[in-house]
Recover the amino acids of this structure.
């Protein structure tokens, strides 16, 4: 399997800055995110505090970012990372049925992630999962509940329904649902996931569902859920001045490490994270 020097998770200013600086230093990188780059940036009506770019809209600044990475031949992989595991000499980044490997990781996930449901983190790995296509075989002929936050979750629900004896789909969004006829749609707000040693129940606002497993399919998840063992403080990743986390070879930058939530601050931290990752890689030779 191909192993990258640096995997960067996030395509906002921090992630892009990290990618550019790592590429300049001839490191083999892979960048995960959105080809539209930062949705948060696109919504900004006016940006006046980014040095050298005065009185521009967020969309205009985003277009300059995009032009920069294209000139440097940096592509964006539009695949959602479900989990990242430290494997000793490298990190395994899980994307549904695929796995990527990288010697170092830079987290630039921002802070636009959904807060966990009560019991979600407690039962993670004990009936709660974030990748239905990865873990579906574990629930063959069992009852499964999928809490879907976007349309993409429907495809995973259809896959799981072919294996499970019963599948409940709880959409946390409005729309027309493209689901197999065997799937029972439950339009009710999820409140809590309960169990003893493993999950056995999902509590909704107006009913309960007995279930053997729950997949929570979100746009993005908390860094502490993404990377087991990652130290967090008040919802932000703990780092030192070199953007090092408590996990060897793992760095972080941008809004995910704390305030102020500013584009220019994020870009600077992305550069530091990249330089620190490069220094770490060079020290391992």
């Amino acid at each position: 399997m191909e192993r990258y020097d640096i995997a960067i998770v996030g395509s906002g200013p921090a992630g892009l800055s990290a990618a550019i600086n790592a590429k300049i230093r001839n490191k083999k990188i892979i960048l995960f995110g959105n080809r539209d780059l930062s949705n948060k940036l696109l919504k900004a009506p006016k940006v006046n505090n980014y040095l050298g770019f005065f009185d521009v809209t967020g969309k205009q600044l985003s277009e300059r970012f995009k032009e920069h990475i294209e000139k440097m031949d940096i592509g964006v992989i539009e695949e959602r990372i479900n989990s990242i595991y430290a494997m000793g000499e490298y990190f395994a980044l899980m994307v549904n049925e695929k796995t990527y490997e990288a010697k170092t990781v830079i987290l630039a996930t921002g802070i636009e992630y959904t807060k966990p449901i009560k019991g979600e983190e407690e039962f993670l790995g004990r009936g709660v999962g974030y990748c239905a296509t990865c873990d579906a075989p574990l629930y063959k002929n069992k009852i499964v509940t999928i809490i879907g936050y976007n349309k993409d979750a429907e495809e995973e629900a259809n896959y799981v329904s072919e294996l499970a004896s019963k599948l409940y789909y709880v959409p946390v969004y409005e729309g027309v649902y493209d689901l197999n006829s065997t799937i029972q749609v439950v339009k009710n707000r999820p409140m809590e996931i309960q169990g003893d040693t493993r999950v056995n129940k999902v509590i909704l606002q107006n009913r309960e569902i007995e279930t053997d497993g729950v997949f929570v399919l979100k746009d993005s998840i908390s860094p502490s859920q993404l990377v087991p063992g990652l130290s967090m403080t008040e919802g932000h990743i703990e780092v030192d001045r070199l953007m090092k986390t408590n996990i060897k070879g793992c760095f972080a930058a941008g809004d995910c490490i704390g305030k102020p939530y500013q584009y220019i601050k994020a870009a600077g931290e992305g550069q530091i994270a990249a330089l620190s990752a490069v220094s770490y890689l060079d020290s391992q030779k």
Observations:
- The chain is about 25% helix and 25% strand.
